Structure formats: C-alpha cells, structure tokens
Amino acid sequence: MTLKKKWTEHLDRNDMTYWSHWWFAVGHGYHCIRAGIYLCIHGFLPCFYRHAGSKLVHSLEKDFVEREHETSNEDGGVRL
What we know:
This protein is mainly alpha-helical. The protein contains 3 helices and no strands.
C-alpha cells in the first residue's frame, strides 16, 4: 500500500480533514508532553502534581471515546 493511500484511508476512516486530524493529534501530543513533565516533577517532589497521570488518562479516554462515537457508522460499527 502506498503512503498516499494509507494517508487518505486513515483520514477517510476517521472522517477528518488533514487539518482537523493535525489539531486533534498535535493537541493530544501537547497534553501528553505537558503531563509527562508534571509526572517527572511529581517523581522528584511527590507533593506536586499528584493527579497529573490519572487526569491525562481520563481526559484522553474521554476525547477518544467521544471521537469514536462521532465516527461510528450507521450499523453501529466503529471505524478504525
């Protein structure tokens, strides 16, 4: 499969334009990096950012589950 075909297939399956996909992916990447920094600080100083990891996981789960429901096809299946 060519790169172009993989690229367009992924965007089509997720019903996203290139830029909407970019914002979704980069936005989540930014949150992961920020939470990673907080977790590193928490590792050295346990009294700070005690819930950074769990907040990140819950936030990502919420966003991805909502996105999954948005892209479900009519027969109830999920586009991956």
